[in-house]
Amino acid sequence: MANLPLLLGHRGARVSPGVSENTFPCFDLALEHGCDGFEFDVRLTASGDAVVCHDPKVGKITVARAKQGQLSKLPCMNDVIQRYGQRAFLDIELKVGDLESKVLTALRDHPPDRGYVVSSFHPDVVMNLEARSRSVSIGLICETHAQLSRWHELPVDYVIAHQSLVDKKLVQEVHGAGLRILVWTVNDCEVMLRLADWAVDGIISDDTELLVRTLR
């Protein structure tokens, strides 16, 4: 394990008590624990705001139908990129389409120093990102074998695979294609050690304290 993988918090330090996922305190805590960065989720409101939120609804409010000011307590994507881009690797997951221009503008205005990837489950989002910018770092998120089978044909830099899909052969194939592989969501120390031994490029965990304690 001479070259340790990136250690990334899943929605921040997700399992830490007293903090809510996908919030500034949660991101801060992941970095305080010693992570290199974190993954966070972005959705689009009806008023055109790019907000940091995993679920399609916040309480009784559907994010995609939210009007101006209804979700003012949620962090904005631009603010997260601006606040953390100088000190953290950012995995920016686009949960929906029509966010491509917004994320590219935010990255142009505040280019991250520690690296980033714009990721999505949706192949059309991946294609739209590549069509709009040849320089953007793009990742395909995979939870099923059907999703994973698409990585060969899409213009991605990262394969972001669920741990159940990952074996040493896949890591070698991804690296052989000149790409990087991140693995999620890994909350077991033995799995963390095995993935690091296979030389994955990053491990995403809910338990950031365990992740750092295991690999650093």
List descriptors:
single chain; 216 residues; alpha/beta; TIM Barrel; 8-stranded parallel barrel; two-stranded antiparallel ribbon; 8 helices; 31% helix; 23% strand
Give a verbal description of the structure.
The chain is an alpha/beta fold. The chain has a single domain, classed as TIM Barrel (Alpha-Beta Barrel). An 8-stranded parallel beta barrel has the order 1-2-6-7-8-9-10-11, surrounded by 6 helices. α2 packs parallel to α3. The mean pLDDT is 97.
Provide the domain count. 1
Helix content: 25-40%
In terms of DSSP E residues, the strand content is: 15-25%
Class based on secondary structure composition and strand pairing: alpha/beta
Mean pLDDT: 97
CATH class: Alpha Beta
Helix run count? 8
> Which consecutive residue ranges, at least 5 long each, have pLDDT under 50?
none
> CA-to-CA gap between the ends?
11 Å
Label the overall shape. globular
Rg, rounded, reads 16 Å
- Name the strands of the widest sheet in spatial order: 1-2-6-7-8-9-10-11
The CATH homologous superfamily corresponds to Phosphatidylinositol (PI) phosphodiesterase
CATH topology: TIM Barrel
Overall number of strands: 11
Order of helices and strands: EHEEEEHEHEHEHEHEHEH
